Amino acid sequence: MPESPTPAGVSPSEERASVYVCHPAEKVREYLERGWWQPDTLTELFQRRVDAAPDAPAISDPANLAALTRAEPQTMSWRELDEYSGGLAAALYRNGIRQGDTVAILLPNSIALTATYFALWRLGAVATPMPASYRRHELSGIVTAAEATAIVTTGELSGRELAREALAVAGNEGTVFAFGPGVPDDAVPLDDSVSAADRERLRTYVRGLTVSVNDRVTICWTSGTEAAPKGIPRCHGDWVAMGWGVQDGLHITPESVLLNPFPMVNMAGFAASFLPWLLVGGHLVQHQPLDLPVFLAQIARHRVTHTSMPPALLTMLLHNEALRASVELSSLRRVGSGGAPLPPSVVRGWQEELGIEVLNFFGSNEGVCLLGAPIDFPDPVIRAQYLPRYGAPGVRWSTRLAESTRVKLVDVGTGVTVTEVGGTGELRLAGPAVFGGYLPGTATSEPFDEEGFLCSGDVFELCGVDGRYLRFVDRIKEIIIRGGMNIAPAEIEGLLADHPGVADVAVVGYPDPVLGEKCCAFVVPAPGQAVTLADLIEHLRAREVASFKLPERLEIVETLPRNPVGKLLRRELRATLRTDEI
């Protein structure tokens, strides 16, 4: 492996315009001195994995890669991945990529995507990835906002000519690199071998670099569920802090096999799979897009021990005994889930019936990281409903982020800090996993309060003995106000998800001339099931839900609209509801 550049906590790179940093120097010093950040860069962590187990399997392509890109899927050892990413770095360097350059990435989960990250980070360059389903509109906006000098993509993806789309965006001002078959003449192919001289020039360049753990390594993007995406720069230090925060709950070992179904372009893919794998080793199996037969076959073939699933998939697998009997899940030990309320009965079922622990994840690209781990929440029903309140008096949580993260709830109306159990407020937090601020030009304001806490936009309730738990209520923007009473869609969705006839559900508000808003439930019925509004209301009344929270309209749909990383697009559901249809 080419020599790693010399790392430092606060280095001369912070004075160079060519290298961007993420946090003020004094904060970096504090985090390093307290041990909240480690002095390791991502490239150093990679080299450590290569040195520790060079011939162990490191990574596998999606089983259906040939159908996606016409490239044959592979499995690589750590040594082979090192050699491959080094060749990519040499090719990128030969074609002008240097420290501080920002490179846009439009690739599916694959060895190529993973190796591209390591190649760019060897050069001190910045990766700005996006879901492979993005098209020219999204790609051009991100390339412009991030001032990307190049794009790395693939020749083809599911019949699309991605490299040609990238060339149209780059024009004459940027370079397009592409993997696989179908690479057009104007793009630089990345499947060609590089010479020994190219590799030597790379080694010479890398030896001369000065790198800080505060150097920007990625610019990820908010999901854009309600507005244009905002750029989120991250550095080695805050990514590694985030990774340890998740690893402390996942308990990955060098013998673990991780199946990653989320696009490895933001928090879900990075924190739940990539970073724990990089920190301790194991075998990372890539998957994309979510294809249930392929996903289940990968679990059986690779003897997967850890993976992630959305709540709807957890529910479906638990309730569909015929499907579950046709697949081999015995290797699974832990499954992470989040992004929507976890039905308590489902989490309990997975643990008691299948012997598989479900972890409750709550996170954001900006740096929110709350993890309901089995060691902290042995009761699966409690684990499904609550998350740890870091800093709660007299409580020691298993994740090291708990000791370094400050948390508070702030009343949305008064701005007063919530201290009474049962009170609700916006979650705000500060600590080593929180990002330093949005990419200039992509946000109208920064999400920090006067004390430097990140304002998450998420409403939580203070719960449990001495307020040791947090219960997610909903996004501030999603709260439905019916006749002056607040309704949290996530609460109702979590209750309705336990209905045997419901496979997936979303609750949104629609205009009402008298009450302001009412609730509409969009339901994807379970196979062979019929669902009525009366059924849903009866289900909620049996759980003694207040009458004003009951949905007053039902829409049956085949699927719910979601963005490329699985977040619900409520705006599309609201757009289908019109006052004159009531």
Automatic annotation (TrEMBL):
InterPro entries according to UniProt: AMP-bd_C (IPR025110), AMP-dep_synth/lig_dom (IPR000873)
Keywords from the named record: Ligase
One term of GO molecular function: ligase activity
Pfam families on file: AMP-binding (PF00501), AMP-binding_C (PF13193)
Sequence ranges assigned to domain AMP-binding enzyme C-terminal in this UniProt record: 491-567
Ranges of residues in domain AMP-dependent synthetase/ligase: 46-439
Domain of life per record: Bacteria
PANTHER family: ACYL-COA SYNTHETASE, MEDIUM-CHAIN ACYL-COA LIGASE ACSF2, MITOCHONDRIAL
Family: Belongs to the ATP-dependent AMP-binding enzyme family.
Identification of the protein by name: Acyl--CoA ligase
Species this chain originates from: Nocardia iowensis
